[in-house]
Amino acid sequence: MFDSVLVANRGEIARRVFRTARQKGYRSIAVYSEADATAPHVDDADIAACIGGATPADSYLKIDAILDAARKTGAQAVHPGYGFLAENAEFARACADAGLVFVGPPAEAIELMGSKRLSKLRMIEAGVPCVPGYSGSDQSTETLAAEAARIGVPLMIKASAGGGGRGLRLVEELNGLEDKLAGAASEAQNAFGNGELILEKAVINPRHVEIQVFADNHGNVVHLGERDCSVQRRHQKVIEEAPGPSVTSEIRAAMGQAAVDAARAIGYRGAGTVEFLLAEDGSFYFMEMNTRLQVEHPVTEEITGQDLVAWQLDVAAGKPLPLKQEEISFSGHAMELRLYAEDADAGFLPQTGTVLAWNGDDLALRVDSAIEQGSEISSYYDPMIAKLIAHGSDRDEACRKLLRALDELVLQGLVHNGSFLKSVLQDEVFAVGEATTAFLNERELGSVAADATRELMRDLAVCLFARSNGQSRWTTATPLPVKIKLDGEETTVREDLKILSDADRGGIFFEADGVRQSAFVSEAPEGGLWISLEGQTQFFEEQSFSTKKDDSAAAGSSIIAPMPGAVVALKTEQGAQVSKGDVLLVLEAMKMQHELTAPRDGIVAELGTQEGAQVNSRDVLVRLEEEIA
């Protein structure tokens, strides 16, 4: 038994675990990095301990630091959350060796399922359907090439030890196979410390469907239905829902039984997720098992009425599962959106900044978030900052609630993907439940309505800047007939646009073309306005009276850091001749790497950074000069 729980994680999942821990009477303990000293999850806990520097390697991935924090705070149990050390067998063993209850599966199960090759062999033994392929220990190029020829194309090369798209290659013809094998092995070795590969027959345009399983120490194993996670970008989930729109009761029963068999085959305990590929003909194949609580677990909670974190804590305390399989029922439909700090219009580039305004607690649905007003979004961690979860009597109602919530959403101070999520929900393929894993690659998302909203927001910004310049504050008085320069263009105030309420900060009412609407406005500390309207948020900066140096002559001469991050690779040197599109350096931020390329042909005149350096947003990293004829 235990009465205190340390969450070896941060952000949204730490807050989620603390919420249930408090309800069950447990003392909650947070750990935090130096960058997270003022983060909301720290305040949510009863006590907290600092475990090191800002980077994950200096804090949330340091097993010794977390165990030391557990000792100092008197923790008796450790919940790993997801990410970081959640699927690290060494960490699970270290907790047990320190006399701590690990709120998760046995280390042996984590270790086995962490290997795609070994886990697939075990699943085949257990009779769980698996994609035809090769999972042998002989990793020579000759053997892998021979097996690829036997399997046939299209096929997938996968890193045995990891996920997230790293070490993953689609092979559509055998010519060039050796290069793809070498590239996948190298990427897997760098990402996971293990270059082992498996080969699988490619299932074209499948659904990604996963089953939530639970097991206790008394021999009980159940499943709580499926979640469809097919809407993915770069193998990262964006929207999840339950039940799956393409899953029949027969498929659910068969897939659920296969997941239960998988958990039994490895002596599992606690919460786990068995992931499958579902083909168009209804056949399904084991993909992997995540030995932890999933990001998308709320949709299962919403349709079952169960608290999965409570189940985790009870199982860790030695209690049997609260329900038998036949007692688990499902009601309605649930859908989850992942809100990311990223710019969808700029290649989904991660964003940083200070949250100036946030109304997540006021939305009429469940919001699990990592932020509050004033929170700092740094470059050190994953860009997911909140999850919006809706439950409805059917899929249409759940989707409708999310669309309304996105329209009402206020998150200002940084760019986010709310508008992109809205375009996904409104897409006709998604709306009828036919999205596969190829959905986001195949669809061009966006709408005329979104473009019209952006234009209206710009007109509103012009009006607000004009009033501010003319009367020192925004009022409902008639604006002065001045021109405002935004984005390099001079614009006058629309005659049919009228402000109907004061707007020092916060919600305002306005009228455009005879239609009354509301928007939310925040002033940025450095100047400029954030405006949220109809699910979109944009930043506007007036240049009418700007004293900034005109950099137009130097346009294209500098490579600027788009965000804070670390330079993990510098691929040029001073004096080098480069061509437009050449990769000059690689910047790592928010767990992702971004290649920065030359905007034009030229000579590297100056390097403003070096490999391994930390840089700030807007730092000049490379400066080019014209080639000398």
From TrEMBL:
It comes from the Bacteria. Keywords: ATP-binding, Biotin, Ligase, Nucleotide-binding. InterPro entries: ATP-grasp, BC-like_N, Biotin_BS, Biotin_carboxylase_complex, Biotin_carboxylation_dom, Biotin_COase_C, Biotin_lipoyl, CPAse_ATP-bd. CDD domains: biotinyl_domain. Residues 120-317 form the ATP-grasp domain. Residues 552-625 form the Lipoyl-binding domain. Its cofactor is biotin. Residues 1-445 form the Biotin carboxylation domain. Pfam families: Biotin_carb_C, Biotin_carb_N, Biotin_lipoyl, CPSase_L_D2. SMART domains: Biotin_carb_C (SM00878). The keyword ATP-binding applies. This is Geranyl-CoA carboxylase subunit alpha. It comes from Pseudovibrio japonicus. The gene is atuF.
